[in-house]
Amino acid sequence: MSFRFCPQCATPLLDKPVDGAQRLRCPDTACGFVHWDNPVPVVAAIVEHENHIILARNAAWAVPFYALITGFLEKHDPSPEEAVLREVKEELGLDATQPATFVGHYAFPRNNQIILAYHVVAEGTITLNEELVDYKRILPQKLRYWPAATGLALRDWLLSQGHTPEALELPKL
């Protein structure tokens, strides 16, 4: 989110150094607002379903991009582990058969996000919600990872499972 005006007093914000970095801040000393622009937490699921990994395509994405199931960590979520299970249920209609296992955390600077990635073993019938338009079922040994954010989580999980994954070459946009 980019601010032009202070959300507390409506004064135009200025780009000034704060704690060693350029930040938008309110020039009104009585207000003192600083836009820290901290990353937004996102959970990602490496969904294992019937010995395959599920990759999905969001309705807003260009063809042929498929990725992990992701969603925002919401303030009412009791934990990131429960948030990732909620996302798997909401987006794929699947239920976890065991607790989510943490894979790692990954920066996604383009969207100012920090991704908390988990492996989720799930069962049920895949039913896509309105955010998704397609999915693929891929055996782990045939997966290739994309060299950014959730793709790095997939790579790390594949390595932990004894696989030697190859990187995809991403098309230039």
From TrEMBL:
The keyword ATP-binding does not apply. One of its GO terms (molecular function) is metal ion binding. InterPro entries: NAD-cap_RNA_hydrolase_NudC, NUDIX_hydrolase-like_dom_sf, NUDIX_hydrolase_dom. One of its GO terms (cellular component) is cytosol. GO terms for biological process: NAD+ catabolic process; NADP+ catabolic process. It comes from the Bacteria. This is ADP-ribose pyrophosphatase. The lineage of its organism: Bacteria, Pseudomonadati, Pseudomonadota, Betaproteobacteria, Burkholderiales.
